[in-house]
Design goal:
Layout (H helix, E strand, L loop, with lengths): L3 E3 L2 H5 L2 H7 L3 E5 L5 H17 L3 E5 L3 H10 L4 E5 H9 L11 E17 L14 E5 L5 H11 L9 E5 L2 H9 L6 E4 L3 H9 L6 E3 L6 H7 L6 E5 L12 E13 L4 H12 L2 H7 L21 H9 L7
Parallel strand pairs: 2-3, 2-4, 6-7
Antiparallel strand pairs: 1-3, 4-11, 5-8, 5-9, 5-11, 10-11
Length: 321
């Protein structure tokens, strides 16, 4: 396993054994290195270390389908989960064969933006142009990728039966296939390390380019047959590799999730800390520019942790609006 550890100066200078006994190391499970979830987890871990003196390790895994059952059992402490995974995993529906009833939400961390990338010199200009093209598929380590990819294709009236399929483990490995020239397009979040690497690998093709997604009411209705997501306009920015001009992609909520065993006082102080730390989170990763301290709750049919509810009641954000 690969770990990123944030240790306070006091821990480094003091008696390690006694400090460890006084405060356990909290593990944030994440998607692989290079993913938005990994980078965002590192940024959140730094804030918890610096402001709560919480010892944190970020543990990358194959995908959320791998770590959500561990999160439910309390074998890891926290993890970022998207809205579809959160609902499906809790109920044991869709891609999750067993329910995870001990999951508890603590906050909406940010919206995550996701779209389709192609080589910049590709003749594919729209989502509809993907008909008959080759795309990654399977995503056994990240089963939510199936829902996300189908939702994006649906905006153009396409299904996976309209494209050729190449099996792969995750959205991230799917982008690697694109960089290696083995597929015509891939689905990924804006600002990922995988996207940046694909941009380098495809330098002879002018890098990568995100396709513009239809934002009509019909397209929105098609998305919401799969998950509660929405069109989101992304403008060119240094972190948004592949966004050539103003581009509409898909956005959906990402939650910082724990389990019912986590002490109420830890969760209370944690969400309070994040509420007051947007600037510090943004320093860690630009995905947090869309974090809204006034909209940290959302009702999706998954229970919220009592420690979080206590804080949100104090600041008038409970119940979710």
């Amino acid at each position: 396993m690969t770990f990123v550890k944030f240790a306070t100066a006091a821990v480094l200078a003091g008696a390690v054994a006694s400090a460890a006994n006084a405060q356990p190391i909290r593990v944030i499970a994440s998607n692989p290195q290079g993913s938005i979830f990994y980078a965002a987890s590192v940024a959140m871990g730094k804030v918890l270390d610096q402001k709560m003196h919480m010892q944190v390790r970020v543990q990358p895994m194959g995908g959320s389908s791998t770590y959500i059952p561990l999160l439910n059992r309390g074998e890891v402490d926290f993890g970022l989960t998207n809205v579809d995974d959160s609902r499906s995993a809790f109920k044991g529906t869709g891609n999750f064969k067993r329910a995870n009833p001990d999951m508890r939400l603590t906050m909406v961390a940010c919206p995550l933006t996701l779209g389709v990338i192609v080589p910049n010199d590709s003749p594919v200009k729209t989502i509809a142009d993907l008909k008959g093209k080759t795309l990654p598929w399977g995503y056994q380590a990240q089963t939510t990728g199936r829902i996300l990819q189908q939702a994006v294709l649906a905006t153009a009236g396409l299904t996976m039966n309209d494209v050729k399929q190449v099996p792969t483990r995750s959205l991230f490995s799917g982008v690697d296939l694109l960089g290696d020239g083995k597929v015509d397009a891939a689905v990924i979040s804006v600002g990922t390390g995988q996207g940046q690497q694909a941009n380098v690998n495809l330098a002879s093709h002018g890098g990568i380019r995100f396709l513009n997604m239809d934002s009509s009411p019909k397209a929105v209705a098609a998305i919401r047959k799969f998950l509660p997501a929405r069109p989101f306009l992304v403008k060119p920015a240094p972190y948004a590799v592949g966004v050539i001009g103003p581009t509409t992609v898909m956005a959906y909520s990402i939650f910082f999730t724990t389990n019912k065993k986590m002490p109420d006082d830890v969760v209370y102080q944690m969400v309070k800390t994040f509420h007051d730390s947007k600037a510090d989170l943004m320093k860690g990763h630009p995905v947090f520019k869309d974090f809204d301290p006034q909209r940290m709750t959302e009702e999706i049919g998954v229970p919220w942790h009592p420690g979080a509810i206590k804080y949100y009641k104090e600041i008038g954000e409970w119940p979710p609006k």
